Amino acid sequence: MVTQMQQINMATEQVPFKNLKAIMVLGIIETVLGSLIAILGAVVQVQYLQVGALNLAEGICCGIWIIIVGVLGIFAGRSQTTISLINAHLGLSITATIFSMVLLGVDGWVASLLGSVAPGSALHVIFSCLAIFGFISFILLITSSALCCSASPNTCCGSCCCAPPNVPPPQTVQIVTQQPAYQSTPQSQMTPTQPGSYMDGYN
Fold this sequence. Notes:
Transmembrane segments: 20-44, 56-76, 88-110, 122-142
Keywords: Membrane, Transmembrane, Transmembrane helix
Oligomer: single chain
Radius of gyration: 38 Å
Region (Disordered): 181-203
Number of helices: 4
Shape: rod-shaped
Order of helices and strands: EHHHHE
Helix content: 55-70%
Strand order of the largest sheet: 1-2
């Protein structure tokens, strides 16, 4: 019996990434926006240090974090990107939204206080800009995370919430071919008769 085994893998082709150009453009915008936030946060920190006041330095922290997310988005948006870069940019974008909400809440509250005490002052304008930049960065980061989520079904959340419908899972098909075995019919064997056995009765 001769048996031949053949394995055919139906999932060898890689699924192409989507939204790469949009991810790169948002990464560039986030890098520029994060730089502006960090610079304005540094100016506020210098102003507070001159008067001996304490500051949370939320502008510097949020700006640096958004810069990191933006630079990672630039690398994740290239044509030679990998699923690891997409997942890293996705996770950091979601984390950075928390920083942007903190920036929006804290600096918006300070800007409202300065608006009633010293409207039109330099600090009032800076805190107002930081609050606006925090809101804009929140929108951009949410958009980046959504684009990364739908970039590929292989992302950490694409397999559960953004995978295309009716896509069968990878399967391995085994084809077994068996050559039929033919059994020959045994031939009848005749036992030769000893010479002279039929003539014994006539002797």
